[in-house]
Amino acid sequence: EIVLTQSPGTLSLSPGERATLSCRASQSVRNNYLAWSQQKPGQAPRLLIYGASSRATGIPDRFSGSGSGTDFTLTISRLEPEDFAVYYCQQYADSPFTFGPGTGVDIK
Amino acid sequence: EVQLLESGGGLVQSGGSLRLSCAASGFTFNNYAMNWVRQAPGKGLEWVSTISGSGGTTYYADSAKGRFTISRDNSKNTLYLQMNSLRAEDTAIYYCAKGLSSSGYYYWGCENWGQGTLVTVSS
After folding, report:
1. Contact status of A55 with chain B (Cβ, < 8 Å)
2. Phi, psi of A21 (to 5 degrees)
């Protein structure tokens, strides 16, 4: 089973700042089948990034994904008020298709 | 527009059963893998199960193996999750999620999500 570790657990930032979120896998994620999703309180998750670096439909270009193998990063270039949320990574290369524990981005 | 509407959640006693449904629209249902993902109160996302577009391949989390069965009816554009021998730790919002596609290829993973249905298991 691929275990995903996300860091930090919580990120406290101000609007306009840059956010850098990490997702580390316990073994290489085949074909970089790694996705990032955003979840706001009381809402369903929303896909942001798939294939480690491809933005999903309708996702603003301030969101970008990078990385390969075991180390992946989600970057939000300039935080907007609506970006304060919890972010999850998920690997969909091999079953079980595990999620990371999440990183919360909150307002400083 | 992709729409996923879950139903069938509710309050059930420990050891009981429930069948969740997810009615899909806005896409060619039988092309896509489908997933169930759950979220216990105040916790993170937990992948539960995935089924291929044809229904011929299924995957389960260890927590679901032997108790839950994922299935689909492509003629009705509907995904199901039969849950038996329910435990208190199965209490969660259960989300249905459509698989990924890109450039005409189809993948596991979760592209679109429903709003979820709440399952509460009382001990």
Report:
1. no
2. -115, 140
The Cα of A94 is separated from the nearest Cα of chain B by a number of Å equal to: 9
What's chain A's length in residues? 108
**Shortest Cα–Cα distance, B90 to chain A (Å):** 17
Residue A45 contacts B, CB cutoff 8 Å: yes
Strands B34-39 and B10-13: unpaired
Q: Would you write out chain A's pLDDT as a tens digit for each of its 108 residues?
A: 999 999 999 999 999 999 999 999 999 999 999 999 999 999 999 999 999 999 999 999 999 999 999 999 999 999 999 999 999 999 999 999 999 999 999 999
Cβ-Cβ contacts under 8 Å, A88 against chain B: 44-45
With CA atoms as reference, report the closest residue to A89 among A42, A23, A10, A15. Answer: A23
Beta-strand runs (E) in chain A: 4-7, 10-13, 19-25, 34-39, 46-50, 54-55, 63-68, 71-76, 86-91, 103-107
Position B1, amino acid: E
Whether A13 and A27 have beta carbons less than 8 Å apart is answered as no
Q: Tokens 């400083």 identify what position?
A: A108
* Cβ-defined contact of B110 to A90 (cutoff 8 Å): yes
Distance CA A67, CA B68 (A): 35
Quick one: residue A82, left, alpha or beta (phi over 0 = left, psi -120 to 50 = alpha)? alpha
What is residue A83's three-state secondary structure?
Answer: helix
Which DSSP symbol is given to B91?
-
